[in-house]
Amino acid sequence: MRTYGGYAARAGITLRPENRRRHVPGSPRMTTTRVLIIEDDKDIVELVRYNLAHEGFQVTAIADGASGLAQIRKSPPDVLLLDLMLPSSPAWEICKEVPA
Known about the structure:
Blueprint: E1 2-3, H1 7-10, E2 14-15, E3 34-38, H2 42-54, E4 58-62, H3 65-74, E5 79-82, H4 91-97
Parallel strand pairs: 3-4, 3-5
Antiparallel strand pairs: 1-2
């Protein structure tokens, strides 16, 4: 198991390489893990986006809950990183709408 420094380590996030889907050369399609970040703080978004993209994840970031929920309905991500204190909509309301 590998832990990454900075924000992820302080937040207790551990990324396991064996759980990430990666592109296998010669395979017909990419199987990159898609991560959706719903966060209003641009600095946090850029920090998390940079580190996840560097590790091979496909990252999409959205700054408000309503747009994030629309994106989830349109194309559900493999992983959702959700700010619990969004100013526009409560995070628990977004969680209720996310398909299991």
